[in-house]
Design brief:
Length: 573
């Protein structure tokens, strides 16, 4: 029965929402989504005397869990509800909409706000009284319990398989293939290559091994996913070599809960050979994968959301430079989103200084703490400890710093202009109340959804090392015959001459310099500003390939920003 009866003699637009947790069987003509839709369509037809009609749009989420609201069809349906296109949402069961009690409350708020209601076809209840709302909450509680119980079962099953040395699924490691029984078998093509990598690694670096494999035309293993997409076939990079030698599966072991468990696979190398390679790798690449020395590892992302891994680049044998670099993402292949690389020392120092500034700033600290709803004398006591907490952060060793950032900063993002830190206000209040003994760690008792707030900190800085080679955006010279604008060319040449004149007479003020050149101070300053045009814009003017509508007045009297990208958009490039 509907949550709220619609008004009589009015067309009631009904949207059918269906969901299935897995994508198994969706390719069949008769599947779970079709069954749910058929029952809901029949129910809507039975309500035709109440002017119920089905909207033409289909809202089907196949392969999406009910534990989250991040579902495309659900998002589209909520958008249509907000736009007033839907009056009633028809479901097969309540758990098709959500299996989370808190998420369902949020959905109910949206429906109430925009005057919509919902119907569960197979569960009849009336929420117009307190008993009906109690039944609804009980049903949702059991739906959430069922979801969590299934998750626990899957987790326990995988843990049991790991303890028995069985492969738990996913893409098989390089050098193995999946047998018909699900067990791992040695790949006849890649097994010898993996053995060769372990045998030659003590004498060759990862880069030398990578170049040797590339010269022999060896590419990464190709594999096909269930949805038919092909992956692999790429060159073998040094990071691929390091990831292979770090996997204990090749010695016949799984790493489960900080322990080595004997695996039911045929080992490709001996345990002694694997241990020797690990010691050599730690000596050659001591900082490559150390989360303590690189305390933003697992936290830092680029502006497109890609996680950033640590990369060590050595110069000679005495100096090593560390960088955070965007990990490979398949969706970014062939797009303009290049992988981002930032100097590790700079971004780590900036992150630490930004967090210290928050702790020392009583105004920002007060806003963060009060966002949790802590309106008591305890709040004032916590705010007085801000300076003390900032000093404690300064004195922390690498292990303490790593644990603190894991607790306080669940996510950080670096862009071309700034560094963003997402700070947990719940953990921040705990850190203010911390007595300073031991190591501050993230609380195991996480607040419920909505019980925590987050504050975004911005640290302006240009941290991007986008490409290791020096380059300017200047295109090759245009073909002869282009019509050049001599007025624009003379403007650039005159601006360059005025800049040289200014540098040669640095003891004079701008007004005195302008007076000597017989022009006003404002015009003199505008002419100097022309020198900061983007190099490709100046080259285009000299080649005669600038937009035909570009004039001297646009450059001289227009709003000319320093950012080259903005200059191109503003001037029509």
């Amino acid at each position: 029965m509907a949550v709220r009866a619609p008004i009589e003699n009015r067309m009631v637009r009904c949207a059918i929402y269906t969901r299935k947790s897995t994508d198994r069987g969706l390719e069949k003509e008769v599947n779970s989504l079709a069954t749910q839709r058929g029952v809901c369509e029949a129910y809507i037809k039975c309500q035709s005397h109440r002017n119920w009609v089905e909207v033409p749009h289909r809202y089907d989420d196949g392969g999406y869990s009910g534990g989250s609201l991040e579902r495309p069809a659900l998002r589209q349906m909520l958008t249509d509800i907000e736009a007033g296109r839907i009056d009633v949402v028809v479901l097969y069961k309540i758990d098709r909409l959500s299996r989370s009690l808190t998420d369902f409350v949020r959905l109910m708020d949206v429906l109430d706000k925009y005057g919509a209601s919902f119907v569960s076809v197979t569960q009849t209840f009336d929420t117009s009284d307190s008993m009906g709302r109690l039944v609804l909450n009980i049903l949702l509680t059991f739906a959430q319990f069922e979801r969590e119980l299934m998750s626990d079962r899957v987790r326990d099953k995988k843990a049991a398989m790991r303890r028995k040395g069985l492969f738990t699924g996913g893409i098989p490691p390089v050098g193995y293939r999946r047998g018909k029984s699900g067990k791992l078998l040695v790949d006849p093509e890649w097994g010898p290559i993996v053995r060769e990598i372990f045998e030659r690694f003590p004498d060759l670096s990862a880069r030398q091994l990578s170049l040797d494999l590339q010269s022999r035309g060896i590419v990464s293993r190709r594999y096909k996913t269930r949805d038919g997409n092909m992956y692999g076939g790429q060159r073998i990079w040094p990071r691929t070599i390091l990831s292979i030698i770090a996997n204990p599966i090749y010695a016949g072991f799984f790493f489960h809960r900080d322990e080595f468990v004997k695996a039911e696979v045929e080992p490709l190398v001996t345990r002694e050979q694997w241990d020797l390679v690990q010691e050599i790798a730690k000596t050659r690449y001591p900082q490559a994968r150390d989360p303590v020395a690189n305390f933003l590892l697992g936290i830092l992302h680029d502006e497109t959301g890609r996680r950033m891994k640590i990369q060590a680049a050595g110069i000679g044998r005495s100096r090593t430079y560390r960088y955070y670099r965007s990990e490979h993402a398949g969706w970014a292949k062939g797009t303009e989103f290049r992988r981002v690389m930032v100097e590790a020392g700079r971004v780590e120092s900036l992150a630490k200084a930004t967090l210290e500034a928050l702790l020392a700033d009583r105004i920002q600290l007060k806003q963060a703490v009060l966002s949790l709803g802590l309106y008591s004398s305890e709040t004032a006591r916590l705010l007085r400890r801000g300076q003390l907490s900032a000093r404690r952060l300064q004195l922390m060793d690498p292990v303490q710093t790593r644990e603190l950032f894991l607790a306080l900063v669940p996510r950080a993002e670096v862009t071309r202009a700034d560094l963003k830190l997402l700070v947990s206000c719940f953990e921040l209040s705990r850190f203010l109340a911390w007595d300073g003994n031991g190591i501050f760690r993230r609380s195991p008792l996480r607040p419920t959804k909505g019980g925590d707030r987050f504050r975004m900190l911005y640290a302006p800085a240009f941290l991007i090392c986008g490409h290791p080679y020096f380059a300017l955006p200047v295109h090759p010279c245009a073909e002869e015959g282009e019509t050049r604008n001599e007025g624009l060319i003379s403007l650039i040449e005159e601006a360059a001459e005025l800049r040289s004149f200014m540098l040669a007479n640095r003891k004079l003020s701008v007004g005195q310099l302008a007076q000597q050149r017989r022009m006003g101070p404002s015009t003199f300053a505008r002419m100097l500003r022309v020198n900061y045009l983007a190099p490709d814009i100046q080259a285009a003017i000299f080649d005669g390939t600038q937009p035909p509508t570009l004039t001297r007045r646009d450059i001289l009297f227009g709003s000319l920003p320093l950012d080259w990208a903005q200059q191109r958009r503003l001037l029509g490039f």
